[in-house]
Input
Amino acid sequence: MNHHVNDYDADHESVYDGLLGGDASQWAFGTDFEDPLAGMDTSVPAGLDAAELADLCLRLGDDALVYSHRLAEWCSNAPDLEEDIALANIALDLLGQARLLLARAAAASPGLVPVLPEGSPVPVEDRLAFFRDDHDFRNVRFVEPENGDFAVTITRLLLFATHRLAVLERLRAHPDAVLAAIAAKGVKEVAYHRDYGGRWFVTLAQGTDESRRRLLAALETVFPLYDELLATGVADVRDEVEVVVDQVLAVAGVERPDVKPIGGARHTEALSRMLAEMQVVARAHPLGVW
Amino acid sequence: MTVTHEDELQEQFDATIARHDRIEPRDWMPEGYRKTLVRQIAQHAHSEIIGMQPEGNWITRAPSLRRKAILLAKVQDEAGHGLYLYSATETLGASRRELTDMLISGKQKYSSIFNYPTLSYADVGTIGWLVDGAAICNQVPLCRTSYGPYGRAMIRICKEESFHQRQGFELLMTMMRGTDEQRAMVQESVDRFWWPALMMFGPPDADSPNTAQSMAWGIKRDTNDELRQKFVDMSVPQAEVLGVTLPDPELRWNDERGHYDFGQPDWEEFAQVVRGAGPCNTQRIAHRKRAHDDGAWVREAATAFAAREI
Output
């Protein structure tokens, strides 16, 4: 029951000794992995239209970027520590996907990347994320609205992840090896996101009267933009997504809400406000290095 | 329980402490030891949770995607530290729920440093460098603390904290290589955080009533002033490498002592922040209370659902 502790000393007294000098390779940060596609062949395979490939990557990348931003807003605000950690994890996964996809889009079609003053050290992924205006973002409206309560967040997450998982599974066979690799990595991540959303969806549906009431209200809030998500045409996965969504609704014991899809517009009013916040520091320092 | 029996237990406890061995959850321990530990570990856990807010303030404005990922992961680590520490208090019979209520009602404290605002992105770097640096100085000795679950939690936490300090320093180094505006941001941030960082070690030894008992129990291993000195000695060469000035005209090397001499923080300001009148005390607690209250229906739903599944 009593363990000798003296052998910990040598190891743990020194944790802050290595800040100056020494071997930098033990640290992940500050070792220049700025280019997320470092070491990959990013030439566009013969027979593929570079502009189409870039558009596809940008749409998928912007979805991930915008939705990651929303989920990160839960940080320090979640119902419990476990949920705070889980939502941050999902936001981090999507942020990682966004970085890869934006970098892929830029490599395939350099003309997409905003031009900054000469000598700007801002990398291409950040030029795309922080120096494009709202009307140039290609994400679906589904990911833009504010988070709402936990029931709205879970409902939106379940639908988003179910759709994205189906899309990424399809894209694993894409002729562009870079996109195929990004998709393969993403499948593992988004499978967890869908599982997390599904488990909470059922829990809220069958938890208390209040959680069920809030979940039913969330369906009314989230479903009007769902049809646009399915219709984005990145890949036609409508049928397989609907099978999964119907299954979760059945297990949860809730009916699909009777709501009309919202009519066409490029973006919601929420996007430009989100971008104003996201881009404010980067835009104030176009020659800055971070 | 007879008096003799309790005396024997006390003797065994004292012998364990004297051997620098660990006390484990099922071992007998004096009530004062248990209470002191719960207070200290809870205060540490609360600091991790409240500490998510000042840095979390910049997640949505991080100026590059790489920095956004680093910052979000860092703040997430702090939630994880809070979790381990609340788990350690549970081995002493104090639940997360009850401790959270004590935090929100102001009955338990958290580190006063988090009652200062974060006013620029450089603060993310400065908090990593100075605040996490000071926290490491405070916490590394706790890896050897006499209570087993606390010591083991601290080993993991210290490894992550040293990583956090590294990222803060690296952010500041990078900004110092950038534009004049960025260098000015770093200096301004260091000017604001230097003195509050020195206060993180607590009042001078002469005014620290609990230190002697905590050291005798092996809960605390170094005095406030010893740790503060260590922190200053460690930070000065790092500031030189960064190219920033520490805002203390009395700061200079003392050959005789083999340490840096330095000025005293404004202890009146410290007392004021501890009393609850710092710049962000009210805001930090209100934020935690709102998140906790807003989440109540979710926690209730999960409990009800789990009860039905069994």
